[in-house]
Amino acid sequence: MSAQPGAGLFRARTEKINWNAVFLEGRALIALILIVVIFASMSDHYLTATNLLSMTRHVAFNAVLALGMLMVILHGGIDLSVGSTVGLSGVVAGSLLQGLDLSLFDIVAYPAVWVVVVVAVAVGALAGYVNGLMVTRFRVAPFVATLGMMYMARGAAMLIADGRTFPELQGDPELGNTGFSAIGNGRLLGIPMGVWIMIGVAVLVAILLTRTPFGRWLYSIGGNSRAAELSGVPVGRVVRSVYVISGMCAALVGLILASELTAATPQTGQMYELNAIAAVVIGGAALSGGRGTVRGTLIGAFVIGFLTDGLVIVGVSEFWQMVITGAVIVAAVALDQFQQRLNHTRRGPGKPGSGARPATKPAEDKAAASATVSN
After folding, report:
1. What angle do the packed helices 294-313 and 49-74 form, to 10 degrees?
2. Do the beta carbons of residue 160 and residue 92 sit within 8 Å?
3. d(CA 32, CA 29)
4. 297 with 198: CB under 8 angstroms?
5. Count of CB atoms within 10 A of residue 340's CB?
6. What separation in angstroms does the CA of 300 have from each of 146, 170, 194, 290, 343?
7. H or E, element range at 239
8. Do the Cβ atoms of 277 and 161 come closer than 8 Å?
9. Domains of the chain with bracketed CATH
10. What is the pLDDT of residue 19?
11. 62-108 tens-digit pLDDT
């Protein structure tokens, strides 16, 4: 008797395909394709090169915020302060470009643009570090810690600007502070700088999560923080770092927006944190931590951005836009929960990955975690 190994192998592989799982895992990409097809059929302007570039530029703001939010959610936390940090960093940049009054020396200093950028990003990093310190050192729940920072950062922006808007941030050649508008309005190879910044941040975050021990530590913390700690993972340092990264991403968005508008207002960034969370969730990340990818987050940001711009193009009311966007977010979370229940049912309780962890001794837990992290 003779067999055909190739045919048998083909059958074995095809039998393993689970189309329900394929649909659930690729739901964000499928949703994005459907959005593009539907709106392209409703408007001839939707798929033009100019409009696609414009929509991608709008997506870049939310995508950069969402990539920082992804890092926080992977450890099982949340950051509600990113929208306020956007406004604070923009106001700090606008204040510096207007001139720094040094009354002691009876002069007004006008920092160079690179100094303005560094200071604004440092402010975002400081806000993130305070969040991380509250969560790790003082054991404050991430929701409460970042909610407090949301109010503090917004209040600080109001105090710095005195409730006003800093206009005309183009700078003056005689003062040496020109070039700020290039961050938001400049183009490289015909592509807006905001899109390039999004690509750069995405590449850096992807490398950090998939090619470094930091990324493995972060996923292990999201999966089981106690086991990760027992295995030697510096949990506190990693958690503080992800909040710092989230704050820096928010500061970058604040700089891009202030540069594009050539004006900075303390009200900028309101509700941005919710769009960032929505992009991460639509992209397949688990709010409980331990699961999420850069690719999925970017697709989630494009889903929200292309959906919103498409509704505007076809003339849908702003109120209905909010209803439809909310429905998409709820559907994404519902599908995620369904996927988790499906995986739990398929694996069975008590099996690896089923979500039910058997009781183990601390030494056994430590050994298992060490093996997980080393892999």
Report:
1. 140
2. yes
3. 5
4. no
5. 16
6. 23, 33, 18, 18, 22
7. helix 235-261
8. no
9. 31-345 (1.10.3470)
10. 57
11. 999 999 999 999 999 999 999 999 999 999 999 998 887 776 676 77
